[in-house]
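Entry type: protein chain
Record version: 2
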Amino acid sequence: QVTLVESGGGLVQAGGSLRLSCAASERTFSMYPLAWFRQAPGKEREFVAAINWNGDRTLYADSMKGRFTISRVNAVNTMYLRMNSLKPEDAAVYYCAAGQGPRTYSGTYSSQALADAYNYWGQGTQVTVSS
């Protein structure tokens, strides 16, 4: 089991950047594939990016490719999401998740299928983007 805590959300202008963090205290953190999801008011949960246990495999939603970067530093039990060129439509609560992860990091998956691959979820951090 792992307890995840997100931080780094806030208010940013369109075109700006933010870096989200997801931390855990358990040593088992380094064993888990991880991911970021987001959910805007009135919308379904949406997959953002995923990373395997050692960070050498990543998967992004098409709309995030080239703007968002997922990374992790297992030595400090932390995963990151660097978000550049933010748009008003990026505003949402961002959640980190840990679990089995996708079968491959080169496939195409629905957000729900990816969400089903993660067992542990954080409480979320709010990202607001002003136009």
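Comment: Helices lie at 111-115.
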